[in-house]
Amino acid sequence: MDLKAGMKIRDIKIDTVFIGSCTNGRIEDLRAAAEILKGKKIADGMRMMVVPGSVRVRLEAMAEGLDKVFADAGAEWREAGCSMCLGMNPDKLSPGERSASTSNRNFEGRQGPGGRTHLVSPAVAAATAIRGTLSSPADLVGSN
Asked: Residue ranges of region Disordered (predicted)?
């Protein structure tokens, strides 16, 4: 993954954040991410996709207004499905790009040939989208 001993994880730039699919696309996962994103914007140049784990979860999230929180922050609100988790559709990383993903696997090429996937929780994914580097929600304390 082009990581080196002693490298600070918070210095790793992320190109794409992916929240959802079957692993971390439950309503409570979407709520956790939305709570962090509410009133904030994702980093310039960041691509963020939010994919509920099921149609039922998607409808529940929309009834709660979570879709609007994600859209207002700059994320793409998607239909339920595999999306970037599987990387067998247009939702892929380009070679050399990195993702912070709530999916369940990160083997080589999982989200696109030459892409690098860092597995994270929904809360870490949301914080990372805001800062543009791998981040914890604690890194946002005191920020706008």
From this structure: 90-121
List of long-range contacts for 116-120, beta carbons under 8 Å, 24+ apart: 116/1, 116/2, 117/93, 118/1, 118/12, 118/14
Distance from chain centroid for Cα 66: 15
Residue-wise pLDDT for 127-137, tens only, equals: 999 999 999 99
* pLDDT lower than 70: segments of the chain: 1, 82-83, 85-88, 106-107, 109-110, 143-144
**Is 50 in contact with 20 (CB distance < 8 Å)?**
yes
Q: Residue 9, exposed/middle/buried by CB under 10 A (0-12, 13-18, 19+)?
A: exposed
Single pTM value for the model:
0.90
CB 140 within 8 A of CB 54: no
- Distance between CA 111 and CA 91 in Å, rounded? 8
- Tell me how far apart the terminal alpha carbons of the chain are, to the nearest angstrom: 32
- Give the Cα separation of 60 and 84 in Å (integer): 22
Q: Spell out where 39-106 has E strands.
A: 47-51, 76-77, 98-101
- CA dist 77 and 97 (Å) reads 21
